[in-house]
Here is the input.
Amino acid sequence: MKRQWDAEELIENFTLLPEEIALLDHKSEVNRLGKAILLKFFQMEARFPRKAADVPYMVVSYIARLLSLSPQQFKEYSFNGRTIERHRADIRLFFGFGEITPQDKEDLKTWLCEKILAYDRTESHLEAAVRQRLRELKLEPPTPERLERLIRAAVSTNEKIFCAGIFKQIEPLTLKKMDALVNTKSGLSDDQSQFKQSIFNFLKTDPGRTSLKSILKEVEKLQCIRELGLPIKLFANVPPKIITHYRRRASAETPGELRRHPIPIRYTLIAAFCSRRSQEITDSLVELLVQIIHRIYVNAERRVDKKLIEEFKQVSGKPRLLFEIATASLEHPEEAVRDLQENKIPIKRGKL
Here is the structure.
């Protein structure tokens, strides 16, 4: 719940209605205030606060003022014991909510796999989607820790199914070539074994400065990816967000970390990385070519300008000729200098 509320928001969201006040049938002022705060908090968040600090003081003060009580009394309200359990049960019943059951959790995992995880893997989005789903089903969400475990279990289940489907589409020869991408051994004997940079790490590198060498380097990367022979429609029905998710995961891991994944996940990560990287390298090649063409044009223009200037410097009597042309233009503004020369009109000479 947000911490700051203005007066209008407090009135609109936390004013106690008559039927809500009727629910506060406690002689104890502390319990009366505590139950009222739980009630309005649950109405806003579809969950109960875990401790007093979860409720903004502005909200506590406003509700206490409505009940003619001191907001300090909320500090005495116990968040453990049978009293708060009875309060929670009354509030759930009042709003028509129920506690989440093991079957509800399984149904929620299935819903996540079918409706959400097929399109998005962002943690914050998943949590928001689950809380909204629970609210629609009128189920009180579990604790944040249990909710996180539930989401992780759904993600793990969905990932196994998804990666198994991708793995089945890749040919055995392609799998061997993908293994070679993450190989870091030099191929020498055990006594002479040394580590080398993997092709996978080479594919991660940036193109560098604009030059022919950079273009050849990018072409080499693109050739490495195309030689894998990945199916053209491997990710045809997969949303771009999911491909990007696996591409980022693969890019953040070392070849050794990739090799430690279960086989279907390992090859899915590498395939997603190569698929996206191929597009990125193609884009960078186009950009490099455009930059080189622009550089060639600029350099050619400079050479032409330089040559013209050098030729101009080689003309003898340039100041005298320029002065005569300027004088002729002033005396006969309506005629071209060439016409004056053809008509044998003398050009007045002077000194510079």
Q: What stands out?
A: The chain is about 65% helix and 0% strand.
